[in-house]
Amino acid sequence: MAVRVDLNISLDGYATTTDQTPENPFGEDWGRLVAAYTATRTFRARVLGDPSGGTTGVDDRYGAAYFENIGAEIMGAGMFGLHNFPDDADWRGWWGEEPPFHCPVFVLTHSAGRAPISFDNGTEFRFLDAAPEEALALATAAAAGADVRIGGGVDTVRSFLAAGLVDRLHVGITPILLGRGKNLWADLRGLESDYAVTSEVAESGVVHLTFARD
Amino acid sequence: MAVRVDLNISLDGYATTTDQTPENPFGEDWGRLVAAYTATRTFRARVLGDPSGGTTGVDDRYGAAYFENIGAEIMGAGMFGLHNFPDDADWRGWWGEEPPFHCPVFVLTHSAGRAPISFDNGTEFRFLDAAPEEALALATAAAAGADVRIGGGVDTVRSFLAAGLVDRLHVGITPILLGRGKNLWADLRGLESDYAVTSEVAESGVVHLTFARD
């Protein structure tokens, strides 16, 4: 059982973008940041439900590994959407009726007390107000021997990294400079000392770095 | 003729280190940041004057390219040492009597008026108070068709990048997190739009990224 993180970041370390507008709610930067991943065969099949086409190289290998052996996920309230829709008691997340998790998802929120939300595909969102260690204990039990993913967002990932709880951190670095947003690397000086670090360049130019420990 | 930059940076973008002490004037971080480069055959031969040993892989290929076809260099006052020894009129730089430049080196300083310093190996330090464009015009003339290197430090490199004067930026990214220092990437949002970016991983784990334009 391992605790895993996968993120797409820019060369300057940003995992979020800031150029959203009402007319372009994702912004252009987000598309550029994740372009290599969303072009993969795995993303098309697993997230878009389209099994045709897509790239099959290094990016797709990491994309496929992302979905393997995950028994539970932990995410922050922002990633689930609670910051955008704090007063909507019926909010069920961004992902419609087929959220691509297929496992229990623990949503960390200070406004706990929401009832769990279950989907036919095995996804169940559970809401709790807990420190990283406590959330991880619950997720580990729910994962029943499989891995736990810390899904995001950046603040949530950084809190688990800072607490030393992550066994494998994979970042896909897109060689663009966003210049602003939330920086994954802030205040993580010396993180590498607990890990073996490996690097690989994809055909797309994305650099895949993995921090792994036994 | 191209304007070139080569820097070793950490995964979080720092090209300087901050852990210097009186007992350890370089600090430990600097050695870790440049370890793969200083291990190369090229560095040993060209900088240490020791033609034996050293690595001969990807890092060495970039190390050797660093020395090719440079006709003039531009550096900041800090890199030359003027900030450390502002009152020493006899200061001749950090490099002793064999500075590894073998060409004119234009040192940007607001306290101009220092006399040039010449060495038998072709290095000549010339001091001037000039904007990037003006310094580059002088260096380009001195280079007589060969390339001009912007040597450092980080502030000087960033001023040339921000002014759009750099044709080829090569960074060797060591996968360590320094967490503080001077960050190469600050305020360079969108830099990639003027360049083709290529990536390569060395045997050492260092990721070599090159921003190049015609």
UniProtKB/TrEMBL annotation, chains A, B:
Residues 3-185 form the Bacterial bifunctional deaminase-reductase C-terminal domain. Pfam families: RibD_C. InterPro entries: DHFR-like_dom_sf (IPR024072), RibDG_C (IPR002734). Signal peptide: none annotated. GO terms for molecular function: 5-amino-6-(5-phosphoribosylamino)uracil reductase activity. GO terms for biological process: riboflavin biosynthetic process. Gene3D superfamilies: Dihydrofolate Reductase, subunit A (3.40.430.10). This is Bacterial bifunctional deaminase-reductase C-terminal domain-containing protein.
